[in-house]
Each structure stands twice: as C-alpha cells, then as structure tokens.
Amino acid sequence: MSPTRGRPHASSREMLADAACELFLERGYEATSVTEITRRAGVSRSSFFNYFSSKAEMLWFVFDARVAALERALREHDRDVGAALRSFAAGEVPEILALAIAEGRTMDVEGELETGRAVRQLRIAAAIEARLRRDGHDARRAEIVAAGYAAALVGTVWRWALLGAGRHRLDALLEGAIVTAEEMHGSEG
C-alpha cells in the first residue's frame, strides 16, 4: 500500500478521502464506486463504512465536524454568536471539500455540492436562529439574521476554496465575512 501522494497518510479515513478525490478527478464522482475507492486506498469495503456512510459524506466530513462544533458553541451561554461563528475556523479545515469546490466540474460533483451546501446552510441557520431566539430576538428577526450569518459562513468557505485554500487562511476570510454580516444586520453579535 504505497501512498499516491508525497505525504504519509494519517489514517484510513484520510487514505479513503485521498483515494476518492483522485478517482473523482480521474473518472468523476458518479462514475466512481465505493469498491473502487477502497481498492485504491488498500482497505476493505467494511473499513469504508466504519468511517463514512456514503461517498458524499467523504466530501463533507470535516465541514460537518466544524458545523457540529459550531452548534455546540452556539449552545454555550458565555459565548456570543460572533464568537461562536469564529470558532468554525478553529481546528481542521475542510481541504477535501475545498478541492471538490475548486475542481467541481472536473470531478463532476457540482450537483452534490449544490445540494450539500443548501442542506448545511439551512442547518447552520437553524442553529443560529435558535440561539438568537434564546437571546431574546423575535422569531422573524432571528430567522433573517441567522440566514445572513449562515450565508456569510458558507459563502466564505466557497470563496476560500476558489481563491486557493492553501494560499489563504479561512479564519481571516471568515472574520471579514462576520464583520460584514454584523454591520449589515446592525448586530453586535
């Protein structure tokens, strides 16, 4: 099992994700099977399902972990919404997702990205809205403000990926988006 890229693999999860990305670039997302991914990674099919429930999850696993961390941060009473949003960029960055965004057409993954983006943006908005309502905002304002923050966060991830994820810091771009969202909503967080 020799790595196909120049760095050692940290775990089977990363090996699988790397193998999937290579195959998506070579054959396209829809034309790549889980069996082909596991064969390329040198692991069993059952190993795949120990880490992922589907091919789509491979693209999103780091992003989804960051969303789960954001949801936890939003439930903390001592942290305001802006601080919780800033925590999204702490930790592992979604490099596989960034590659998929930048190479969406080549990977033939644009449909999955569009659907996944919408689902996750709605999930983020719902978490922010719940926090704002808990903080006393009326339902209408909470929904609108939360949608703006969620769009700023997800849009920033897309911008970061398209600018070249390795050349830009997600936290710096996110900071600018949060400040803009706060200004537009007339909110202090």
From TrEMBL:
DNA-binding residue intervals: 33-52
InterPro entries xref list: Homeodomain-like_sf, HTH-type_TetR-like_transc_reg, HTH_TetR
Family annotation (Pfam families): TetR_N (PF00440)
Keywords assigned by UniProt, alphabetized: DNA-binding, Transcription, Transcription regulation
Residue ranges of every copy of the HTH tetR-type domain listed in the record: 10-70
PANTHER family: HTH-TYPE TRANSCRIPTIONAL REGULATOR RUTR, MYCOFACTOCIN BIOSYNTHESIS TRANSCRIPTIONAL REGULATOR MFTR-RELATED
Name of protein: TetR family transcriptional regulator
